[in-house]
Amino acid sequence: MQRYLEQILSFTNIYTIFFCQNKKLGRHQKQSTNMASCFSMARVFLAFLVVASSLGHVFSSPLLSDSGDRQRANHTKEIQRLKLKLRRINAYLNKINKPAFKTIQSPDGDVIDCVLSHLQPAFDHPALQGQKPHFVQEDPPERPNGYKYTEAVAESESFQLWADSGESCPEGTVPIRRTRQKDIQRASSITRYGRRRVRRDSTGSGHEHAVAFEKGDEYYGAKASLNVWAPRVCNEYEFSLSQIWIISGSFGNDLNTIEAGWQVSPELYGDNNPRFFTYWTTDAYRATGCYNLLCSGFIQTNNKVAIGAAISPTSSYNGRQFEIGLIVWKDPKHGNWWLELGSGILVGYWPAILFSHLRSHANMIQFGGEIMNSRSSSSGLHTSTQMGSGHFAQQGFGKAAYFRNLQRVDWDNNLLPITNLRLLADHSNCYDITQGRNNLWGTYFYYGGPGRNVRCP
Prior knowledge:
By secondary structure, the protein is α+β, with helices and mostly antiparallel strands. The chain is built from 4 helices and 18 strands. It is 21% helix and 27% strand. Mean pLDDT is 85; it is low at 1-64, 150-156 and 199-203. Pfam families: Neprosin (PF03080), Neprosin_AP (PF14365).
């Protein structure tokens, strides 16, 4: 401020001399008198300008200071907000990632933690606290009558990329894909991480299906073999999956489901690899249940299969087809819903106590594909996210995705062929489905599609 005033006063002296030397003096006045008067008048005028300028500077400075203070305050608040979010993420990670007995680095970048069976996330559930995992060796579940292993797919547990490391989890532990900070940051919120994305705008849910189902009876399980593809998913807000659904209750807020299959979900996993997954809910995806082991509930018993890990190899167009076999059924001995993969690989179970309607039985079983279309109808364009192989059902074997040997489990734990199959395609110009039956494949169907095309703009 002092330097500023000194510059103004220096300018005042220069201006005074210039002004007075150029002023026309009166004829009857002495030059010295007029010069003195001129200097006096000029100094008074310029002194006024100096004071005014100084006051202006004084009054304007607080405004500039206030603006800077506001910017600093906003910056501080943003830092505090980010620190709080990071603390919440780390607290969640400390809760979901259990202590590892052994850690395995997967070739695809995943980290697999071998966690002691009794420490897995399932036992954080209030209804399961204090319990121990079911020891399959001592008390195996009662498999359905008529279940044969001859058509088994996934003949060994080495159908996942993490197993290519040559490492394995020891007996008494279960392999769990580690959740990392970047996984949480891709989600819309910590509370929604690991849960189904459900759109609630006026354009609908955004979920589109090409499925086969049977209902109208009491169901105690479902079985099928399905080939695995790597469909293109357009963005992190979308997914593409193929799965079995075990369903009970209405399609309102009391919907109970058990789900298992393969999926591509960039938001959940950070890549476009197809991955083996499970899901469950007891309130139509609102608050209960989650994918894989990202919340308490599903109890894993297998030490060689990592739920959520990438599947390899996959099927190729006009080339080799790779498939997995899945069966979900209700064990008549203890009432739990078991998941088996391939040729007799027991993965784990959903305790019946988790559910309301599914505590007794299902009233519908469903098979097929589902995608998430994040585009609203107002945009005028459908998503190009693929379902299955990305090709329509009519293209058949080697080109389209399929489910084969569809079967159900009845009240007496008998495995029976499905004979009353119904088909549903929400948008048949985008994704469709066709069914068939023969002696080799039993009841089967092809399904899928490319999404946006000339018939599905």
